[in-house]
Amino acid sequence: MSTVLVVDDDATMQLALTRRLQDQGFDVVNATSGEEALELFTTRVADVVVSDVMMPGMNGFEFCHLLRSKPEGEMVPFIFLSSLGELTNRVQGHLLGADDYLVKPFSAQELIAKVKGAIARSQRLHSALERMVEKTSKPAPLPLTPAEERVFWEVVQGFTNKQIGERLFLSPRTVQTHLSNMLTKLNLDNRSQIVRFAFEQGYRMPEGEGE
Q1: Could you give the CA distance from residue 28 to residue 130 in angstroms, rounded to a whole number?
Q2: Which of 66, 109, 162, 190 maximizes the CB count within 10 A of its CB?
Q3: How large is the average pLDDT for residues 28-56?
Q4: Angle at CA of residue 164, ends 161 and 170, nearest 5°
Q5: Average pLDDT, whole number, for the chain?
Q6: Among 25, 28, 37, which residue's Cα sits nearest to residue 65?
Q7: Which domains can be identified in the chain, with CATH numbers?
Q8: What is 5-60 written as a DSSP string?
Q9: Looking at residue 52, what is its pLDDT?
Q10: DSSP 8-state assignment for residue 81
């Protein structure tokens, strides 16, 4: 269940928004000021923030600016709801990091659509980032045959050609052939460079190897 943080000092507006959002299956957390909302964020991160602009003490613009400066609030979707409908106000809201700006009075149906759209975009962004991290954290497959790759990991562990032959039941000539092929394919000159290459490129020994 997605959580929406509603920040508004108007109790009637709070109640109306809470009911509408809960009817759509959202979990709703309420705050009546920017200060209270920031405090809530230290213990419970919301999936979307819906905030008024004009509030006593810290206004919505200040709240948005401070929230964006915190790691836990840097990426959370932020929607302003305000009676300040001038272009300069809307531009200010977006420049401070808001994803959307609705002018009061607004359609509850439009707000729900924007909240759902913001969550969907956030989820797509997180999925894309996870794929990028996974892709960049895994080195490209070794351009070796299965037999050459087995010898590769034996070399990385520091075994001599004789020891590799005994461990893999290969003749010394076959081990040397695989080693020569590896050096050519990886554009390396010697065994020491193979070990350094494996560690620098982030290659991990497959499970079951080295036993």
Answers
A1: 27
A2: 66
A3: 92
A4: 95
A5: 89
A6: 37
A7: 3-135 (3.40.50.2300), 146-200 (1.10.10.10)
A8: EEE-S-HHHHHHHHHHHHHTT-EEEEESSHHHHHHHHTT---SEEEEES--SSS-H
A9: 94
A10: E
